[in-house]
Sequence to fold (333 residues):
Amino acid sequence: MAQTVIRLSEKGKRTLKKTRENPAKKATARVPKDVGAVVNALRILRCLSGSSKPLGVAAVTRATGISASTAFGILRTLARLHYVSFIESDKTYRLGLAMAEMAAGLLGVSHAELIHPELERLALNYETLILLWRITEDNRLVLIDRAHSQTAVRVEIKLGYRMPLLAGAIGRCVAATLDVPSSELRRRFAIPRWQAPLSFDDFEKQVFDARNRGWSLDDGHLFRGLTSVAALVVDEEKRPRFGISGVSITGQQSLQALTALGQDLVALAATIGSALFPGPDIVSTGRSEAGARSASHSEVIHASDESAAPALPSNVLPTVNRMAGSGRRARKT
Fold:
């Protein structure tokens, strides 16, 4: 059998040797070096997602092997960015709203479940009832979730309670987004049943204020003895989807505390809107610095009579201008 002999020049031998050696060198060179801070942050998020209850820094440290100081720093950063929620009452953490934006198509939980930790945070910080309202297709407000304060005396409103679209503090926020003449606004204003009626001129002025600052106040007009502050959550097409309100007994909260709560509600509404309904023009806002304390008593005020809020005729939801405010509540985590 004939054999074919291939003779290589010295240059060819060097080239062949180099070709055989390069793959091993390249394989070694392809191994990337992980960024430690990113790895630790992801380990902490996985730890929180795998836990059936919120965890403190010590529990996270034990589960992940990350040092306490590093874990605390990462958790504090994630909380500021809303990837985790800090629960003030027991100094623990759980996954936050911003995680919804990253896994919007995979989550099987409702919007109310995602928002609830933020309701609890505000209820604890302001010692007031925080309510989440859904804006329905027939233009009514339906109470779908709530978070109570820890005070002995507090307001109670039952889940499922329904109101006309322009009722209360949320109604003023909705009215602030309507592009309708004053005569039409007057007609819609007359539909809710106000327990302490206000003039249309006063209502229109409060709507103007809501348009400028992004939140509104109802001081005992919808329900006597109850003061509410509210802001709107809008989607990527700027349609109103949810309302968030804080309700307290009139006189329990100072004007400064109510103002701070209003600013916090605007900031939370913007965060929820950008997380649940991301769009190209979403702008983050910060939180204002404020706090409030209220007195303790031993009675509960109920506001669950739906007869106080008759139905609003069906119409087309208006185009909504995003109401954004500055200042997001700074809190220690």
Remarks:
- The domain at 11-96 is CATH 1.10.10.10 (Arc Repressor Mutant, subunit A).
- The chain is about 40% helix and 15% strand.
- The first strand starts at residue 84 and ends at 87.
- The chain has two domains: 11-96, 110-308.
